[in-house]
């Protein structure tokens, strides 16, 4: 064997020592996340694992993204990307957890065990792509990842600062011999912008649609990349970028806007006024939400559920118009607003499924449809088209037996596919898709909002000594431990008209999340408050008791 596994521990020690005091951590919803000071050894080991994963996957490229997405500035994290841009296979999540938690003295043996169990030949090439967000500690953590890859004699391609979805795209392009596009920043931007311009045509404004978007970049990589896009858009869409230089996610960004239900700081007043159209992306630019303030001064949010309905509705119309038979489905999580689910099933007549939280679950489910639309309420999602769907649409665009109108519609659908980053939710691609549909319909945000009315909802955090005492099932909707908690939740929920509430441990933060919706804002707030206190009492709350959210 050409790779001496002794080098796994002996090499670049300063980058990877696991201290005795280091607590065990888990590969969660989106990889490992914690305070950046505790991550060097995690990064190094994920570098090792990525090299092994590449070898286990016939030397295809594997991605390693260094980011803590929507978390505060002091956190960082790492996630692995599988060959076709998917999240790391679940079985390997366990291997990742085990590898990260062994003491230094056991590292070499643990690597040897993975090689044996997974029949990995260390003579084979290993190819790993590394990207990072704009956090100031990301470059140092990236060094640790690179050293891990090199310790196993893998080949590293460093993409520097990129959005998470860009890295997914690069991995997919490379492993499909560039059939999906070129694995470079220019290739990625060029593909999206060409499709966007073709869909938009010459006329930048239509009906109530105005060519002006206010964009909150969360002081992260989403700002940086959008500034690059603006140059290439060349006026096809006027985007004003805010929050590009401050503290990442601090009082801004998609997560702040969605959780606090308010306009982020750093946006000028005129932006959120009734006529304005604003959007916020998160720290690694894989989610987006839209919003404005109406004439009465009320904040109006158009979140992932809305984006899903807007895009799915438009695509359904196009598919019907060009006369191809394709099965479309929409995938949500328990966090989806009940009113959106009702609207999709009963009005749009599109089947909906509910999966556990985390895009890997949604993505997986969406693969079952010819056209699968999946979005988390927080704005993370995309659309995936099966090979069958792509072929049928391509054929329709060239089919002389169809009307010219039908062929044109099919061609438009092909552009919509090109504008989509199918590999994973992508804030910039999703934003361009939303802009395209609003433009095509001649809609402003009022028009979009009019399709259905959200049930008022609240998302709360509860701090527990150990969040994992809470175990859930049925796509996160039912608590199975501690015993009796679900019955008590049911009793509280029954008091509220249209009430719905569920509780689950977060996979990215050391908290338990409580979701509540009801007929009125006051009821949703009260429901969340009661359930949060129940959890605090029955599951070992720490610190101060949950307080009632402001109305
Ligand atoms: C309620 C919520 O927004 N949860 C988010 C959050 O997961 P948690 O496991 O809830 O912390 O981060 C995930 C990764 O970004 C995202 O997929 C998910 O939707
Ligand atoms: Mg993110």
UniProtKB/TrEMBL annotation:
It holds the Pfam family PGM_PMM_I. Residues 183-289, 303-443 form the Phosphoacetylglucosamine mutase AMG1 domain. Keywords: Carbohydrate metabolism, Cell wall biogenesis/degradation, Isomerase, Magnesium, Metal-binding, Phosphoprotein. It catalyses: N-acetyl-alpha-D-glucosamine 1-phosphate = N-acetyl-D-glucosamine 6-phosphate. GO terms for molecular function: magnesium ion binding; phosphoacetylglucosamine mutase activity. GO terms for biological process: carbohydrate metabolic process; cell wall organization; UDP-N-acetylglucosamine biosynthetic process. Substrate binds at residues 376-378, 504-508, 513. The active site is at 69 (phosphoserine intermediate). It comes from the Eukaryota. It is an enzyme of class 5 (isomerase). Its cofactor is Mg(2+). Residues 472-533 form the Alpha-D-phosphohexomutase C-terminal domain. Pathway: Nucleotide-sugar biosynthesis; UDP-N-acetyl-alpha-D-glucosamine biosynthesis; N-acetyl-alpha-D-glucosamine 1-phosphate from alpha-D-glucosamine 6-phosphate (route I): step 2/2. Its EC number is 5.4.2.3. Binds 1 Mg(2+) ion per subunit. Mg(2+) binds at residues 69, 282, 284, 286. Residues 60-93, 123-174 form the Alpha-D-phosphohexomutase alpha/beta/alpha domain. InterPro entries: A-D-PHexomutase_a/b/a-I (IPR005844), A-D-PHexomutase_a/b/a-I/II/III (IPR016055), A-D-PHexomutase_C (IPR005843), A-D-PHexomutase_C_sf (IPR036900), A-D-PHexomutase_CS (IPR016066), AMG1_II (IPR049023), AMG1_III (IPR049022), PAGM (IPR016657). Catalyzes the conversion of GlcNAc-6-P into GlcNAc-1-P during the synthesis of uridine diphosphate/UDP-GlcNAc, a sugar nucleotide critical to multiple glycosylation pathways including protein N- and O-glycosylation. Belongs to the phosphohexose mutase family. This is Phosphoacetylglucosamine mutase.
């Amino acid at each position: 064997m050409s790779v001496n596994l002794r080098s796994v521990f002996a090499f670049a020690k300063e980058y990877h020592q696991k201290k005795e005091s280091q607590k065990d951590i888990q590969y969660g919803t989106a990889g490992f996340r914690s305070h950046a000071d505790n991550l060097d050894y995690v990064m190094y080991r994920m570098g090792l694992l990525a090299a092994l994963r590449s070898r286990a996957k016939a030397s295809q490229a594997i991605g390693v993204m260094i980011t803590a997405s929507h978390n505060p500035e002091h956190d960082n994290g790492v996630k692995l990307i599988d060959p076709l841009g998917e999240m790391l296979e679940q079985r390997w999540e366990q291997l990742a957890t085990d590898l990260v938690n062994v003491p230094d003295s056991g590292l070499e043996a643990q690597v040897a065990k993975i090689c044996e169990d997974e029949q990995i030949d260390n003579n084979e090439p290993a190819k790993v792509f590394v990207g990072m967000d704009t956090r100031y500690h990301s470059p140092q953590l990236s060094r640790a990842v690179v050293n891990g890859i090199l310790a196993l004699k893998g080949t590293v391609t460093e993409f520097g600062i990129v959005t998470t979805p860009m890295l997914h795209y690069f991995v997919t392009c490379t492993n499909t011999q560039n059939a999906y596009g070129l694995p470079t920043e220019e290739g990625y931007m060029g593909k999206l912008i060409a499709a966007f311009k073709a869909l938009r045509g010459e006329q930048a404004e239509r009906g109530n649609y105005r060519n002006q978007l206010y964009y909150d970049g969360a002081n992260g990589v989403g700002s940086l990349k959008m500034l690059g896009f603006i140059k290439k858009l060349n006026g096809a869409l006027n985007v004003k970028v805010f929050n590009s230089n401050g503290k990442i996610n601090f009082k801004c960004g998609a997560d702040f806007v969605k959780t606090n239900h308010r306009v982020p700081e750093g946006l000028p007043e005129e932006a959120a006024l009734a006529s304005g159209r604003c959007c916020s992306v998160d720290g690694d630019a894989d989610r987006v939400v839209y919003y404005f303030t109406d004439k009465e001064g009320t904040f109006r949010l158009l979140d992932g559920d809305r984006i899903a309905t807007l895009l799915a509705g438009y695509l359904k119309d196009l598919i019907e118009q060009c006369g191809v038979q394709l099965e479309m489905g929409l995938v949500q999580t328990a966090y989806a607003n009940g009113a959106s689910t009702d609207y999709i099933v009963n009005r749009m007549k599109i089947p909906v499924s509910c999966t556990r939280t985390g895009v890997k679950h949604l993505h997986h489910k969406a693969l079952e449809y010819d056209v699968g639309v999946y979005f988390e309420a927080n704005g993370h999602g995309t659309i995936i088209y099966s090979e069958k769907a792509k072929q049928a649409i391509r054929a329709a665009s060239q089919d002389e037996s169809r009307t010219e109108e039908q062929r044109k519609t099919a061609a438009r659908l092909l552009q919509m596919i090109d504008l989509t980053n199918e590999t994973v939710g992508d804030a910039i691609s999703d934003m361009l898709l939303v802009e395209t549909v609003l433009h095509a319909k001649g809609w402003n945000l009022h028009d979009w909002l009019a399709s259905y009315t959200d049930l008022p909802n609240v998302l709360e955090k509860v701090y527990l000594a150990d969040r994992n005492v809470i175990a859930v099932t049925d796509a996160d909707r039912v608590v199975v431990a501690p015993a009796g908690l679900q019955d008590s939740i049911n009793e509280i929920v029954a008091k509220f008209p249209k009430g719905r509430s569920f509780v689950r441990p977060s996979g990215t933060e050391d908290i338990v999340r409580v979701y509540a919706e009801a007929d009125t804002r006051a009821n949703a707030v009260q429901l969340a408050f009661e359930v949060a206190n129940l959890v605090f009492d029955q599951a070992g709350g720490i610190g101060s008791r949950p307080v009632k959210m402001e109305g």
